[in-house]
Amino acid sequence: MNIVLYGPPGAGKGTQAIKIAEKYNFVHLSTGDIFRKNIKENTELGKLASSYMDHGELVPDEVTIKMLEDTANQYPDAKGIIFDGFPRTIAQAEALDAFLEREHGQKVDKTLSLEVENEELIRRLLERGKTSGRPDDADENIISNRIVEYNNKTAPLKNYYVQQGKFYKIEGVGGIDAIFERLAAEIE
Ligand code: ADP
Predict the structure, then answer these.
(1) What's this model's pTM, rounded to 2 decimal places?
(2) 102 catalytic, yes or no?
């Protein structure tokens, strides 16, 4: 089963993806986490990624797609994968479909969209910035830019998945467990 967790920055994708992976024994693939790991280890990929992430911009598709495919290939026997923060552009979504088909004869089963209003997102991100150590959460200008990037490049994905009948809206406000129950109901 291949699940895409979709939604703006601060919607709670990471928190919920961890819980889903745990409950269903799925592999959790977070492109943001993989980029941050590379930044920490000071790899070439990390240096490149941080030059975009520090401004709240998306990392270029080519780089992101290759990294995602390389990582996914490390789990040939995965029972399921939860994609967190990927795809974020139409090109990434098309690449993911092609990859799943080519390598595994599979497809994206469902895209679960965490729905949260803009004001609440900014509030959450600034709050997270106090403790996360993430430079992109600490500055309101960078946060705004991430939301602009989301609206320009990621929001169009909704239609991509709606057209395929795979798009499911999940109310992303409330307690972590309550939101998780809503996601789990859709997965089952
Ligand atoms: P959030 O969802 O809170 O923005 P992420 O950890 O998913 O946090 O992403 C952090 C940053 O990593 C993004 O602002 C972007 O620069 C980069 N990034 C993550 N995933 C992708 C992706 N699929 N395509 C391009 N850039 C990405």
Answers:
(1) 0.94
(2) no
Read off the pLDDT of residues 37-66 as tens digits, 9 standing for 90 and up. 999 999 999 999 999 999 999 999 999 999
DSSP state of 29: E
Question: Is 113's C-beta closer than 6 angstroms to any atom of ligand 1?
Answer: no
83 lines ligand 1 (CB under 6 A): no
How many angstroms is it from 82 CA to the middle of ligand 1? Answer: 15
Residue 154 Cβ inside 6 Å of ligand 1? The answer reads no
Judge contact between 150 and 9, C-beta under 8 A. yes
| Residues shown for the chain | 188
Four-way CATH pick for 2-187: 3.90.226.10, 1.20.58.100, 3.40.50.300, 2.60.40.420? 3.40.50.300
* Ligand 1 centroid distance, CA of 68 (Å): 12
Exposure class string for 103-132: b at 16+ Cβ within 10 A, else e: eeeeebebbbbbebeeeebbebbeebbeee
**pLDDT tens by residue, 108-145:** 999 999 999 999 998 999 999 999 888 899 888 999 99
Rounded CA-CA distance 27/75 in Å is 8
